[in-house]
Write a structure and sequence with these properties.
53% of the residues lie in helices and 6% in strands. The chain contains 21 helices and 4 strands.
Length: 452
Amino acid sequence: MNQPMTLLEQLVSLLDREIDDATLERAQLHLLDWLGCSVYGARSELAGKLQGYLAEWGASGKNWNLNGSDSCWQDAVQFHGALGSVSEMDDLHRTSTLHPGPVIIPAALAVAEMVEASPRALLSSIVVGYEVMIRIGRALGRDHYALYHSTSTCGSFGAAAAAAHLLELNHEQTVWALANAGSRTGGFWQMRHEAVETKHLHNAGAAHAGVQAALLASSELRGPASLLEGTQGFFAATSSQAMPLAVIDQASEAWLLFQCSFKPWPACRHTHPTIDAVRALGEVSAEDVRELHISTFGDALMFCDRKHPESSAQARFSLQHCAAVTILFGAPAIEHFGEETLARPDVAELRDKVTLHVTETHQRAYPAHFGATVRVVLQDGSEWEMASPDAWGDPEWPLTSEDIIDKARTLFAAAGVGTETTEDVLEVALNLSGQDDLNSLFTALRGLGESQ
């Protein structure tokens, strides 16, 4: 008697469907978006620490590495995996509350180079990796996100799927890869409460675990097919509110890559609807502000209630700081999260005028919609109010392709990359699906490493 298929077995089966040209073009934009975020991340203090580690303990190899020297795949995956979230501008999926790009794309690039994959295979692997990561993420209850960094916990599954696609693993091997990657998953939010870089190591570890699991599956190393729904499996261990059927629901719809959002502002996504609502107020003089009330959803306060940020990283997770710099400068830019802006008296004064609230309207809509309402009380007693039910960059209010390209240019420029190198990368990345091989891509990427 045949046993019913497990969730992982059904998930792998539904990946076997057409990936059309429009979907590959969408994957190109996610690749470019990740490149911009990672190149900027490569100039960070975190990157310097990782480069010191690689210099002493890393291994040489043939894989492109943004630190400027080719390395083994393990070092490339982990270095790149740690960089994509540094700017807090990485892409995201709302209902699963995770960021696919920083985990999936480093894994896909490393394996694609190792197996000399075609450009279409690379892009397809990104699509497949996003699909798996999002499907598992959306099946988890909100209790999971309360304690676990879901980009990490679900990312290893997606990285394994992307790698398995490039390695051309069969159905059973792919199930093993996802199962073994998920068996090693983790990532606790406790790191939010201290000035540490652990969040980025979560992403690096997830990307590495996924690739390693796929490579081992190609050598017939087996994994538990019932990992998701088993009595001692992923859902049982990490979410009492899990919705297992969400892993396989709506299998005939468009690839979930299209549900992802691109981030225009260099701060936690939970702050973006507030930024958009403040911008919608129009010109408001900082001196005229008596009170600024922000009403939004609960997770925004849990992660971003920080009236007195002490670092760039903390400022990116501060609703008060994001609102203040938006009033003062019209839109938050990368430089507005640096030490100089943090220390400005006018910024600190505005932060102190902010009061945060959770409102039923936005809480009920979340996480399908990230919304906020801003009410400003002026010194003369008059009040203005604006609401943003979705954030700019969400599918309901998308960034255009040109917006995404401009964002990449801005991040490259902030990282000190020259115009010629930038345009070389843009030209290759935006036309990747029509190329015969990946030689032009990795030549352009090595140029980025040399410019760092």
